Here is the input.
Amino acid sequence: YMDVSSGSNRNDNVNISQCRIGGYGQSAPTDVTTNGVTVPKVLNAGIRFGIRFRSAERFTISDNYIGGQSENSILIESKSIVSHGAIHDNMLDGAFNYSILIRSLVAGGTPSFINIHHNTGVGYGFDLGFLMIQQFEGVAGATQVSVNSNVVQFYRGCPIYIDHAIGVSIAGNHVSAYNSD
Here is the structure.
């Protein structure tokens, strides 16, 4: 997790590569009994995010295995600036929400110029999707994002979900075996 410290507005030249970041993610259904009533419940255990940062310029997340998170494999939130980044050649394996979630937390801090390519995302039929670019409290989700040549499979929701983004290019992705949207 990288945030900005007081007095600075971004992390610069960040490179995260060749890491193995695992969690437990969603576990198998577990019966929970309260006052004599048994209900099946799926427990989310382990770490919430594999990689999370709030502001960065010129960043690369590459050649990693990130899997089993109870929310997102990669969460990028712009508190001031998220710009000129690449997310490529990663194995994103089973995060319960979206494998990659990108959003701005403030007006004027819209994530921009982000290239997401050559990743493999596997959802195991219970994860929502591979990528979500999300409008957050009325702020645009992102600008100038390209999503190319990813292999995306077995998500239960919409594999690529773009909400209020400008200048998005999606090409050459292989999306298979999802079952709802």
